[in-house]
Amino acid sequence: MARIRRKEVVAQALRALVVVAVLIMAGAIPKPIIILGPPHTVETVNPKMGVHTRLTDEVEEWKIQRSLQLVREMGAPWIVEYFPWGYVEPAKGQFDWQHADMVVDHAVNQGLTVMARLDFVPEWARPKDTTFRYLDEDHYGDYGDFVYAFVEHFQGRVDYFIIWNEPNLSFEWGYRRVDPEAYTELLKVAYRRAKEANPDCYVLNGGLAPTIAREGNEWGLSDLLFLQRMYDAGAKEYFDILSIHAYGYVYPPDDPPAENKINFSRVALAYEVMVRNGDGDKKVMITEGGWNDHPRWTKAVRPYQRILYTIQAYEMAKDWEWCQAFVVWSFRTPVPEKNFRDYYTLVTTEFILKPIYLEIQNYARGATDWLLEPAT
Amino acid sequence: MVVGLAVLTCAAGVWVVLTPGEPATDETWERIQEEGVLRIAMDASYPPFEFIDEEGSLVGYDVDLAHELGRRFGVDVEFAIISFDGLYDALRVKRVDLILSALPFDLRLTEDVAYSHAYFNAGQVLVVREEEADVSSVENLQGRRVGVEWGSMGDVVARELLRRMEFELYQYPAPQEALSVVTEGEIDVAITDAVSAYQFSRERGSIKITGSPVTDDPYVMATLLSSFVLQARLNEAILDLSANGFLDQLRLVWF
Fold this sequence. Notes:
The complex is a heterodimer.
Chain A: H1 2-27, E1 49-52, H2 61-74, E2 78-82, H3 85-88, H4 98-109, E3 113-118, H5 140-153, E4 160-165, H6 180-197, E5 202-207, H7 223-232, E6 241-247, H8 267-276, E7 283-290, H9 303-319, E8 323-328, H10 355-364
Parallel strand pairs in A: 1-2, 1-8, 2-3, 3-4, 4-5, 6-7, 7-8
Chain B: H1 2-18, H2 27-35, E1 37-42, E2 45-46, E3 50-52, E4 58-59, H3 61-73, E5 76-81, H4 84-92, E6 98-104, E7 113-115, E8 120-121, E9 124-129, E10 145-149, H5 153-161, E11 168-172, H6 175-183, E12 189-193, H7 194-204, E13 207-210, E14 218-224, H8 228-243, H9 246-254
Parallel strand pairs in B: 1-5, 1-6, 10-11, 10-12
Antiparallel strand pairs in B: 2-3, 3-4, 6-14, 7-14, 8-14, 9-12, 9-13
């Protein structure tokens, strides 16, 4: 009896092991094989077209490749991509390049020019209970080390580097009062280290956010005032190209600029600040901007307006000699944001091409009927 | 041996269940009752749900719903007008008790907040003439004339449907124009967002929403996970207000 009982227990255990093994094998579904293939080039009537790809949190390689392929097919040669410092250097001196390499290699393969935005402070480089936008002077050197490592690692693949993001907003400065002089010191550190790694690279300042906040406002400072204070603090020699953001909200792109108004053409006022500071020979890149078409947000426009305004803005950027690129926010998000931000994208999470993508593609292929409003 | 392990597991489970723990409390609900105030976060940029009118007052569908909740809970309502990006932070740091702001359900945040039942679906719907009896789902679009707002999510939906069926697609600069031509008989069906459809129906009549929504965009309220009593009361209220027609009446007032 005892022998029979032992056999039953062993049989049951073996059956359980088989079930477990099958479950493990079923979970280990082979990943699709992604092949880079031969290099591509972007065909477009407007070499200043760009789009923010935001592949930072896209983990599946085929989706990274597909996104960048669609950007190329849309006709936009420039992309801004976000490479969080905290993701790449999770511990001091320890680098994880895998995801960044994947994104960059696919972008280069698609013939795209990458502008790398570098920020997001890792936990080891900031005090506890601060946000990932908080970087104090004690850690400027660490950020500089990261910039050096990043520029060196991507030499030959990435030439444009954006130092921080929207430093004229308190939120982006770790919820501290904005400080153009402190930001300029950070820019100097990053510039020196970037040039040390690659003297031929281009350093851009953190894209300035369009705001009309005056001096003393706890939430931010006008992009124009912030830029002038950067110049006053000696920033002129420490950036090669001005990076600025341009959102149109409810105004068409050719709505005239004014210091107390936020619209697309406000960027021309930023260029005037550069000229006044003897920096008119430098170029400007609009590294983020565009319009939103949420059905109810008070700062959105109708979808057809978003299509027309975006294309008109690409044309305006083409005509501005001092403008090197206009990068639209944004291409696609890995998961729906489930809020008004979904109405900035050109392609859905499931890779459904929105009408705006198709119209931009038509424009990039030389179509001119975008000049007309849709027939009723 | 196998039976022994099973018995051990069951015994552990029984021990956990029978061990007396701390009684659960909803500090948010207790505070609301003690202070007599329900604090609600809203981004007043989404008419007709919440917006600032010409007199500078906060008004809208969600505002009226909030006041009704206050009435049912026997407390006053206080609004914190915060831009969308700050709504969840305001809840997390307990500056407010509840977000009620045409808030879409976000699956990614269900480990951080508790969402109520949906009280409105803002998704895309099929709209036909009042007398139309043959269209009740997207399957009935085959061979018909379909209108959408150019570039909208309705346009996206229609183009996706064209991959597997055939119909004539007409695009218009605004949803009202697509709905107008439905009433005039120039097209058979429009695909628009629910709010636009309701607004047009109230102003012009002659149309109806048919079938189930083509896409879902449920609006919900959000509380902290620990606010389980408040959450239960909200859900109870939503079910009741839906059943007794209050939410329908609110819709007729605002769109």
